[in-house]
Prior knowledge:
It is a single chain. This protein is mainly alpha-helical. Helix content is 76%, strand content 0%. It has helices at 2-13, 17-25, 36-59, 66-98, 103-109, 112-135, 142-145, 157-199, 211-230, 238-267, 271-275. Helix 3 (36-59) packs antiparallel against helix 10, helix 4 (66-98) runs antiparallel to helix 5 (103-109) and helix 9 (211-230) packs antiparallel against helix 10 (238-267). It starts with a helix and ends with a helix. 19% of the residues are buried.
Amino acid sequence: MITRQRLNEQASSLPNPVAMARALAEPARPDRVEDPLIAWMQRIRTVLGLAAAIWLILAYPLRAGRQDFLVGKLEELLIGCAIVVVTGVIGIAVCITLARAPLGRLYVGRLLGPLRALAAPVLGVGVIWLTAAGLSGDIITPGDVGQHDITFGLFGTFLGTVFTGLLVVLLFVVLTLACAVVFLAAVLFTLVALVVGLNSCFRTGDVHELLPALLSPLLVWSLFGFQLFDGPDVAAPPEVIYTFMLGGPLSVTALSLWEIRRLRTRYGITLRSLLGR
Length: 277
């Protein structure tokens, strides 16, 4: 029983990519107003959006291959991140500029959370690229090491070279397995960081509670415009495609308006309080 408890404690102490991504991408300001109903509605929105996307993919054939589809969705996530970065920088800069003292300095001091949320997917993509290069042999291969004798002729040149070669191959096998594990963990970390970051507008709520509700509609309508020019991913009827494409922006906009109203009526958080006016 004690041994099992120790094993569980050791397992829980191991790096968890999901927990790490959420810790970096979720809002975490201690004095931030947290409304359980708003958080619950945001989760429902995310789940319904994922369910609708899965249904659309399963119900209708893809216009391109699965690999192209996955690459396209990854590009959409990255574009969404870029939009959030631009709108977030502009929105926070406007708040800092227009806010009365000392709110401007206070908002500047709260930028660490959004910066961490933005750095998380960048870090994940970097690790993915590095481990993918290692797995594909672009960094180093056993052939690059050459023939060596680490026994310094203790067992003869031939046996020493064979022993060294086997040791190098074994080392590369271990490193390949380690790279594969890190690669999978980095992919999971990056996906969670992207989804959680987009859902929270990359922790802009740490700067002020109103910012995610103000920036989310701009994000989804920008993605709608991109999808409109990029074309649908599945061969579905136009009424299904446009219903699906408009459903996300309209629901997010409606939810954002509801969030703004709830923050105003329940907690007195308004645009005037954001600017200190």
